[in-house]
Structures are given as structure tokens and as C-alpha cells.
């Protein structure tokens, strides 16, 4: 199982659900019992709790992450073998989970077993992420690192809109998809999180964590060393621009909210 740190999840989800229209099809106001599968630190769980009076359950396979989640019930378990009886929730949902599974259809089938009404998935197309930056080398380097990662990763991290195909294969009906762009902007005055992210760029830490995946995708160790050296130089330039309050960056991640109904 691919593991995620709480810091990474909190940083990448910041501000994601400031606008919530894309969740309209989940009809949160009328739900009674919701399950968030692969909840991580509970970023989507929190939205469910704010937008409904439902009992909200959260499940993850990572015991460390589950400890960060505020929910009515926290469950440790596997998305493809949920520890719940059939039809006990009226919404089973996930966010950025299917892209991490080798058999996403098996998970959606399991969601449909546990739901008496709706199943939903909020999944990105990571191949279509865009970055704009005042540091000229940042967008091409981010694209190079992303392409190498996608080449090496063993699940479909670009699933996005294709989640609808998984839903139909799992037997769900009335399947609909709404696109939602998560835009994260960094500009002065910089918050603590932006300063920490810049410092991490300058060490190339996250690239180092991804090195096994980059190697699996065919990136030679020489090519990796070159990429990391350029990445760290770019990170130092980001830090330098921040000292002058000159640094600005906008990252856009396209997400797709897919909703389907369990047939009667
Ligand atoms: C990219 S994170 C998304 C977390 C959260 N939903 C969010 O959007 O911030 C993927 C999550 O799925 C969990 N996960 C991965 N495989 C799983 C599985 N088979 N069953 C349950 N959880 C799983 C990971 O531990 C991680 O918390």
C-alpha cells in the first residue's frame, strides 16, 4: 500500500473544499449515515460533518492517519473488504483513493454493497496538473518529475474522469461526473506551510521519497541525480524570491466528482 504522511495530506488538501458546489450531487443535507473510505487525515470527512446531520464514519488502512481524524466512528480496514454489513450507509464515498488501488472496480463494488443509496468518488487526473511560477524552472521541473512518477507508479493516478467507467462496471446506475479544479496559490504574505514547503523543495526531500517509483519508471540514477540537483537549485531560488516577497505560484489539480446510485 502506498503510504502518505499527515503533513503531505494536510498541505495538498488545504483550501480544497472552500467551494462545495461540485458536491451537490451527494445530497449531503439528506444523508443519515456516511462512510468516508481511505479518509487519510479526514479532509473530506470534515466536509461531510459540516454539510450534513448524518453519522459520519471514517475508514483507512493506515493506523497512524486514522488517529488524526475527527469522526463519529473511526475504522481501520481495507477498502475492498469493508468491516460493515450490506446497505448500512446511504452514502459511501472516497477522495483520492481509487487512484491508489490496483483494482479500483473491486473497491467501488464493495462501496455499492455497503451503501443503500449513493456511492461517490472524488478523484484527480494527476497527468493534467499545471504549475505556474515566478521561478521559471519550476513548471518544467514539476512536469518532468510528474511524468517520471506517472511512468513508474503501478496504479492509474490519472483515473479522474474515468472513475465513471469503474462505477458502471461495478453495476451502479445514474452515474454523473462534475469537474472541480483545486487551485492552490502561494503569494505574499507567506504562511508557515508555504515557508516549510519551500524549505523542503530546497532539500529535494519529496523527490528523494519518490526515487524508487521514478527508478521503476526507467529514470536512471544519473538522470535522477541530475533532476534532484536542478530541483534543489530551483528550491533555493524559491526561498530567495520569498525573502524578497517576490515568489508566486499557482498549482491547479483537476478533480472529478463521480456519483452513482445502487440499483434497487
Ligand atoms: C491520497 S490519500 C487520500 C486521503 C484523503 N481521502 C484525502 O483526500 O485527503 C489515500 C488514502 O487511502 C488510504 N488507502 C490506500 N489503500 C487503501 C486500502 N486498500 N484501504 C483503505 N485505505 C487505503 C491511504 O492510507 C491514504 O490515507
UniProtKB/TrEMBL annotation:
The keyword Methyltransferase applies. GO terms for biological process: methylation. Its EC number is 2.1.1.-. InterPro entries: Methyltransf_11 (IPR013216), SAM-dependent_MTases_sf (IPR029063). Residues 35-114 form the Methyltransferase type domain. One of its GO terms (molecular function) is S-adenosylmethionine-dependent methyltransferase activity. It comes from the Archaea. The keyword Cell membrane does not apply. Coiled coil: none annotated. Keywords: Methyltransferase, Transferase. It is an enzyme of class 2 (transferase). Pfam families: Methyltransf_11 (PF08241). This is Probable S-adenosylmethionine-dependent methyltransferase.
Amino acid at each position: 500500500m502506498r503510504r502518505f504522511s499527515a503533513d503531505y495530506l494536510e498541505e495538498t488538501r488545504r483550501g480544497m473544499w472552500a467551494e462545495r458546489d461540485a458536491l451537490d450531487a451527494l445530497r449531503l443535507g439528506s444523508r443519515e449515515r456516511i462512510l468516508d473510505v481511505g479518509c487519510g487525515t479526514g479532509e473530506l470527512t470534515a466536509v461531510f460533518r459540516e454539510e450534513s446531520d448524518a453519522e459520519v464514519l471514517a475508514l483507512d488502512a493506515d493506523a497512524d492517519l486514522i488517529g488524526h481524524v475527527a469522526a463519529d466512528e473511526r475504522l481501520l480496514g481495507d477498502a475492498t473488504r469493508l468491516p460493515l454489513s450490506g446497505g448500512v450507509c446511504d452514502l459511501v464515498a472516497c477522495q483520492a483513493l481509487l487512484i491508489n488501488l490496483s483494482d479500483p472496480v473491486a473497491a467501488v463494488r464493495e462501496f455499492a454493497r455497503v451503501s443503500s443509496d449513493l456511492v461517490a468518488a472524488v478523484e484527480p487526473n494527476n497527468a493534467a496538473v499545471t504549475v505556474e511560477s515566478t521561478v521559471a524552472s519550476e513548471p518544467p521541473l514539476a512536469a518532468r518529475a510528474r511524468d517520471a512518477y506517472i511512468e513508474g507508479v503501478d496504479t492509474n493516478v490519472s483515473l479522474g474522469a474515468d472513475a465513471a467507467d469503474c462505477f458502471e462496471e461495478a453495476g451502479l446506475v445514474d452515474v454523473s461526473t462534475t469537474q472541480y479544479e483545486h487551485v492552490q496559490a502561494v503569494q505574499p504574505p507567506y504562511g508557515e506551510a508555504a515557508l516549510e514547503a519551500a524549505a523542503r523543495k530546497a532539500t529535494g526531500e519529496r523527490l528523494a521519497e519518490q526515487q524508487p517509483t521514478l527508478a521503476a519508471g526507467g529514470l536512471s540514477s544519473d538522470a535522477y541525480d541530475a533532476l534532484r540537483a536542478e530541483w534543489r537549485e530551483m528550491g533555493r531560488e524559491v526561498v530567495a524570491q520569498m525573502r524578497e516577497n517576490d515568489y508566486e505560484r499557482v498549482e491547479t489539480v483537476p478533480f472529478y466528482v463521480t456519483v452513482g446510485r445502487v440499483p434497487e
